[in-house]
Amino acid sequence: MTLLQAFILGVVEGVTEYLPVSSTGHLILASRVMGLRGDASKSFDIVIQLGAILAVAVHYRALLGTRLRGLFSRQPESVRLLVALVVAFLPAAVVGLALHKVIKALLFGPIPVAGALVVGGVLMIVIERVRRARGTTGLVGVEQVTWKRALVVGFGQCFALWPGASRSMSTIVAGQLAGLSTATAADFSFLLGLPTLGAATLFDLYKARAELLNGVGVPALATGMIVSFLVAWAVVAAFVHYLQRRGLEPFGYYRIVLGLLVLWVSLS
């Protein structure tokens, strides 16, 4: 992998990780276009998420600092958020650990990604229209995330194990169905990404450390992570601001168009 290829993949990761369009799907497609194949390339697509994870930690540093200090004094809001994150983390952690090899072997390809993009896009459009017809806005503030609502988000996150589904899409939509506003669902989704993506990334980094060093190299890994951090930091701030005023429907149409295009190219 060249540094230019690592730079491009870092940009793709940073832009798409927290948008509901599937970063994994876009990385798989970008890797295929650049001729990058094999286990080392697949692991690189996962490991550079570390940059995007750090971007969320930096963006929410004030909230995280407040809640961390609150845990020592047992403030209800801080304890509730910790419990919610743990509850939401567990379903996908159990399923992902059990099916890790199967997912990587069978679903890291253009056609499965295309199917997930289309299915997720249709789901987003339908839910947005139903909410708009009912005049539903949802609860505002991460302090509204009870353990029951967090469990709904956690089960929704299991759908994101299908590359192309998008973890952001799955958890934000699940949060909407649990009664949260779109912006609050996004806030909780991004915070949930810290333990979820962190665990998955470190697990893959440990398992694939040899092939990453030999097949990718430290300079390319560092480039991908740094670029994904900088781009993701800007995207998270802009996306949260956007969701405070608008919904997810435009991203649903984008997913459907991209999914059908990928399917057409793959089959032809």
Describe the structure.
This protein has 268 residues and is mainly alpha-helical. The protein has one domain. The protein is 80% helix and 0% strand. It has helices at residues 3-16, 23-33, 39-47, 49-59, 61-72, 76-106, 110-134, 147-159, 167-177, 182-207, 209-215, 218-243, 249-267. The mean pLDDT is 86.
Would you identify the regions where 5 or more consecutive residues have pLDDT less than 50? none
Order of helices and strands: HHHHHHHHHHHHH
Percentage beta strand: under 5%
Largest sheet: none
Q: Count up the domains.
A: 1
Structural class: mainly alpha
Number of strands: 0
What separation lies between the terminal Cα atoms? 28 Å
Using the alpha-carbon principal axes, give the shape: globular
Give the C-alpha Rg.
18 Å
What is the count of DSSP helices, taking H or I runs of 4+ residues? 13
Mean pLDDT: 86
Q: Can you give the helix content as a percent range?
A: over 70%
List the SSEs and their pairings.
Layout: H1 3-16, H2 23-33, H3 39-47, H4 49-59, H5 61-72, H6 76-106, H7 110-134, H8 147-159, H9 167-177, H10 182-207, H11 209-215, H12 218-243, H13 249-267
Helix pairs in contact: 1-2, 1-12, 2-3, 3-11, 4-10, 4-12, 5-6, 6-8, 6-10, 7-9, 7-13, 8-9, 9-10
Summed up, what is this model?
This protein is an all-alpha fold and 268 residues long. Helices cover 80% and strands 0% of the residues. The chain has helices at residues 3-16, 23-33, 39-47, 49-59, 61-72, 76-106, 110-134, 147-159, 167-177, 182-207, 209-215, 218-243, 249-267.
